[in-house]
Amino acid sequence: MPIKPGSNFDVDAVMAVLGTVGERFQEGTPEDEALRIAAVALLYIRDREQLEDYREYFRRFFVPATESVVAVRSFPTSEEADVWLAQGQGNEGDLVRIAGKGFRIIRERKGSGRMFLRTPLPDEMAQVDEP
Predict the structure, then answer these.
(1) Against a cut of 0.85, is the pTM above it?
(2) With left for phi above 0 and alpha for psi between -120 and 50, is residue 89 left, alpha or beta?
(3) Using CA atoms, how far apart are residues 70 and 85, in angstroms rounded to an integer?
(4) What are phi and psi of 15, to 5 degrees?
(5) In whole angstroms, what is the distance from residue 75 CA to residue 89 CA?
(6) Long-range contacts made by residues 56-63, C-beta under 8 angstroms, separation at least 24?
């Protein structure tokens, strides 16, 4: 089974490939040691039940930065977004889309609440670049 960057790779398939590659190197060489470290690290992640977190971390290395920037929520109007935020939804730093435009949730300068700061999303920036 091929291993594709960004896919939900199968740990056992990766381990099999590492084993095949490892056979090319004499035991005790730096290459042999590096492959062992990589294999054990992958097993450790799986045994600690953190494989999904690692897969997401792995994907980020192969996905262009602009594709990894996504809005956590979209709203047709600013009124709906304001109600959502007032209900305590969303986290500081989250990106949202309101009426087709990007915003980031930030803390208010005065007070303890949160507000939206206009932050263009990658697709908006691409439209500006197009003739």
Answers:
(1) no
(2) beta
(3) 18
(4) -60, -40
(5) 13
(6) 58/5, 58/6, 58/9, 59/5, 59/6, 61/5, 62/5, 62/6, 63/6
Task: Report the SS3 class of residue 95.
Answer: strand
Q: Rounded to whole angstroms, how far apart are CA atoms 21 and 17?
A: 6
Instruction: List, for residues 24-46, the tens digit of each pLDDT value.
Output: 999 999 999 999 999 999 999 99
| Residue 90 one-letter amino acid | G
- Report the helix count and the strand count for the chain, using DSSP H and E: 6, 4
Give the separation between CA 46 and CA 86, rounded to whole angstroms.
39
Q: What is the Cα–Cα distance from 69 to 120, expressed in whole angstroms?
A: 11
